[in-house]
Automatic annotation (TrEMBL):
InterPro entries: SLC13A/DASS. It is a multi-pass membrane protein. The chain crosses the membrane at residues 32-52, 59-80, 86-104, 170-190, 210-235, 268-297, 317-342, 354-387, 399-421, 442-462. It comes from the Bacteria. This is Di-and tricarboxylate transporter. It is found in: Membrane. The keyword Transmembrane applies. Its main location: membrane. It comes from Lactiplantibacillus pentosus DSM 20314. The keyword Membrane applies.
Amino acid sequence: MKHTKWIAGLVGIILGLIITFAIPTPHGLTHAGMVVLASLVTANIFWIFNVIPSFATGLLMLSSWVILGATDFPTAFNIFSTTTMWIIIGGLGLGAAATKTGLINRIALKIMSWFPANFSGQTLALFTAGTIISPMIPSAHPKTAMSTPIAQGISNALGYKPMSKGSSGLFLAAIWGFLVMEASFLSATAQNYAFKGLLPNKFQSVLSWGNWFIMMLPWTLIALVGGFFLLRFLFRPHNDQTVSKAFINQQLTDLGPMSREEKITGGVILVAIVFWILESTVNIPAAVTALVGVSVLVATKVLTPNDFKTRLSWNTIIFIGTVMALGNVMQTVGLTTWLRVILKPVISPILGNIWITVIALPIIIYICKFVVVSLISTGTLIIIALLPFFQTTPFNPAVIVFIVTTSVNIWLLSYMDAPFLTGSAAVNNSMASKRSLATSSLGYMVINIVGLLCCVPVWQLLGVV
């Protein structure tokens, strides 16, 4: 495996050098465009084969633009001063506090105590808890690491054997609620902001927190209802008897009353969500709201300076910044215009009609996931490939972000979804069989396309299609 990485890395570097220095610059493209194209080819190979950490690849890519004269430093690294980067940092800070204080765990357990203690009831509880918690933590890994052990405890309390239908179903309900439903809210994962940040500025304004929720509402309802009945059909045990909620109640008892830190965190997050929804009305940028919220948490000692070192994924933040830089720089050096001419015969039929787009594009992304494991890398590559066509599509390119966000989250093979692997590791890979993973993912892939199709009328009413 190590040799494969280094061979891939060497191939990527050689290809980059050939494109930069050996191939004549095509008509319609500048040398600066060739440099950016070469760096993109090399970076993609590095990302696909994980040659070095993704954020380091991204930093090298941006640095190569400056070293080889494609652009200057302020242009290459401009993205790190934008509001998108700061809302990611602020959002991750709020999520770190919610996880640290145990607030998220308490909310999830409380919701589960309201539902019947059987497969159907607790599946619905996991769906509900995950959907409610999603906008509070903009990071998938903590949510899956927290939710699957809760699902395992419920499974054990209900008497399900490891890898059985019931155990597999509850594991997937946790994944579905806490991971899949991230697509419903802009603040539910940092990659949503990253994909939004790849759009030209004039198209980003439509993707406020409130607009995102409204435009994704049909998909949310289809994903929740369809997912619940899919898991119930595939995994509900034949003898689905209601048992005692002793496990859930005991965990709630062990937590004790809400701490001062939980109350402060809950209040700050609630206020932040309200201001995110009303962003266009109160005219306060979402990034400012998030940063004020984090500052309050620091001032009240809910978060400490050390938490910023250990609880925020800085490598992810840097990686997101480097991939977002591609959008503006590709336009600046004329690469998007050149690619639009080259790729038009293939891409135009897909993007020429919104109904074709919401069917064909997810299928293309599903296929890409067999090769590109990282969710954010897959989404980035797709958006960058389509970027040259955003000026000519008959619909607002913002909808491409929705399609990408919902479609990268598949687990047909477990390696396709890194947060999924985190959730599996949290329960020692003991809950779900490989067959259950594959069948549920196939079901999601169909439900996803149906949900996106149901969004189209809403997008039309809102004037983005």
